[in-house]
Amino acid sequence: MSVISEEKVRGGNVFKDIGADDGDWEPTEIESLCMNCYQNGTTRLLLTKIPFFKEIIVSSFSCPNCRWSNTEIQSAGRIQDQGICYTLRVKTKQDLNREVVKADSATTRIPELEFEIPPFTQKGALSTIEGLLDRAVAGLEQDQTVRRATHPEVAEKIEGFIQKLKKLKEVENEFTLVIEDPSGNSFVENPNAPQKDEALIVSRFKRTVQQDIQLGLRADDDDDDDGDNLEEEPAANDLDAMRNEVLVFNTNCPECNAPASTNMKLVQIPHFKEVIIMATNCDSCGHRTNEVKSGGATEEQGTKITLHITDPSDMTRDVLKSETCSVLIPELEFELGMAAVGGKFTTLEGLLKDIKDLIVSKNPFICGDSSTTDRVQKLSDFGEKIDKIIAGEMDVHFVLDDLAGNSYLQNVYAPEPDPEMTVEKYTRSFEQNEELGLNDMKTEEYQEEKKELPAEAERTE
Q: H or E segment at 215?
C-alpha cells in the first residue's frame, strides 16, 4: 500500500493540482470490503484540487472478485459563507452535456416529476446532467428484483417512474433541474461563458439553523439564533474606537486551508458611505484576498452606475462592488451575476483583472478532458478584449447594477457631475426584494418591542 510521504505532509502540500507531472504522486490504496459480494477489494484515494471546488478527495473502488466498481468525490475544502442554488431549464439534448460538480450536501430536484434526492443520500460526484439522471435511475433500479417478489405493486409504480426519468433524456419536453447546496461547493457549467446563461439561474442564500447542524457548523443544542437573546447596541465611543482600529481574528486560508489571519477595518469612503474591509493573508501559500461588506443598511432603491470608458486613466478609478452587485459590459454581451467575485474594494483595472481570472484562468471546464477547441478560443478572445479595455484600446460601457444600492464608482470630477458617468436610482421589483430577503423582514416597531423585553422578563421572574 502506497502512502503520502511525510515530507509532503510537513510541507503542507497534501492537496496537489491535477496534472500529468510529478509521477511520484500516486494515490493511496486501501484494502476495503466490497458491498456487492462482501469480499475484499481495493479503494484508491487521491487528494487533489480543481478550480471552483477547492480541495477534493477522489476515491475509486474496484473488486477483482465480482468486478464491481464505484467512484466518488468529496469536498475537502472549507464550507462557503453562503449556500448556492442552481436552477437550470433543460431545453435541448445539448444541455444534458453540461458538466456538474455535485457535493454530497446538495439536494437535487426535478419539480415536473415531483422528484427529489435529499442531501447526504448520495456521495459527491463530478458528472453531467445526463450522468445525474443515469445515477438516479440506477439507484431506483437497485432493489427492483426484491420489490417485484415482495411488493409487486410498489415495484410497478417505481418502474413507471424510472421510465419517466429515462424519457427526460430524450428532452421531448422542457424540464427544470434544481441543485441546492447549503455548503456552497456545487457547480453547474455555463457553456455560454463569458456571456450570461439565459437557461441557468444562480442564487445564493443564508443557511438555516438545521442546515448548519447538518454541515457540522453548530451543535444540536446551539440556540444562539433563536431570537431570545438580544444584544445591546454598541455605544458611540465603541464605534469610534473600531473606526480607528484594525481588528484581527483567526481563520483558515480559502486556498490551502492552513491557519491564517484576517484583518478587518471600518473605512469611510468620501461622497459615499462607511464600509467594512476584510483582508486575509496566508503565510503558508502566500494567498491574499480582500472582501468588502457594506457598513450600512440596504438602500430604499437600487442603484445602476454606467461609466463610458474613454481613456486609460479611467482604470485608476476606485470601485466598491458589493456582494449584491452585478457587472455588465454591453459591448461584449457580458453579464456577471452578483456574488460571483464577492465584495471588492479595488480599482476598475483590478476588478476587470479579477473578472478575467474568474472567467478565463480559473474556469474548470477549459482544461483537460472537459475542454473543447471552440470553448477555449471563445474564452481566450474574451480575455484579449478585457486586456484591450484595460489598455484603453476599446470603447465600452461599464455598468454596476446593485439591487441593495451599496456599490460605488469614483467620480473624478467630484463634487461636480462626471460627464462620462450616470447614476440611476430605481425601485426594486418584488422578485428582487425576495432575492435580498426583504419581503419577510419585519422592521416596524422593532425598537419599541426591544425596549419592552426587560420589563417582561422582570414580570416573568
A: none
CA atoms within 13 A of residue 284's CA, in its CB half-sphere: 17
pLDDT tens digits for range 227-249:
444 444 455 555 555 666 788 88
Do 389 and 382 contact (CB within 8 A), yes or no? no
C-alpha cell at 96: 444534458
SS3 call for 71: strand
If you average pLDDT over residues 157-165, what whole number do you get?
91
Directed axis angle between helix 373-390 and helix 348-356, to 10°?
A: 170
Q: How far is CA 286 from CA 47, 254, 255, 318, 355, in A?
A: 21, 11, 9, 25, 21
Give CA–CA dist 254/77, Å, rounded. Answer: 8
Mean residue pLDDT of the chain comes to 79
Q: What pLDDT, on a 0 to 100 scale, did the predictor assign at position 368?
A: 53
Spell out the residues 6+ positions from residue 49 whose beta carbon is closer than 8 angstroms to its own: 15, 16, 17, 18, 55, 56
* pTM, to two decimals: 0.56
Rounded to an integer, what distance in angstroms lies between the CA atom of residue 68 and that of residue 73? 18
Closest CA relative to residue 267, chosen from 290, 235, 299, 301: 290
Q: Find out whether 423 and 305 touch, Cβ atoms under 8 Å.
A: yes
Report the first-to-last Cα separation within the chain, whole angstroms. 65
> In this predicted model, which residue has the larger pLDDT, 42 or 343?
42
| DSSP tally for the chain: helices H, then strands E | 10, 25
Q: Is there a cis peptide before residue 415, judged by omega within 30 degrees of 0?
A: yes
Query: What is the reported pLDDT for 251?
Result: 83
Residue carrying C-alpha cell 436610482: 425
* Dihedral sign for Cα atoms in the order 85, 88, 93, 94: negative
Length of the chain: 461
What digits encode the pLDDT tens for the residues 296-321?
A: 678 889 999 999 998 899 999 988 88
Residues 96/175, Cβ–Cβ less than 8 Å: no
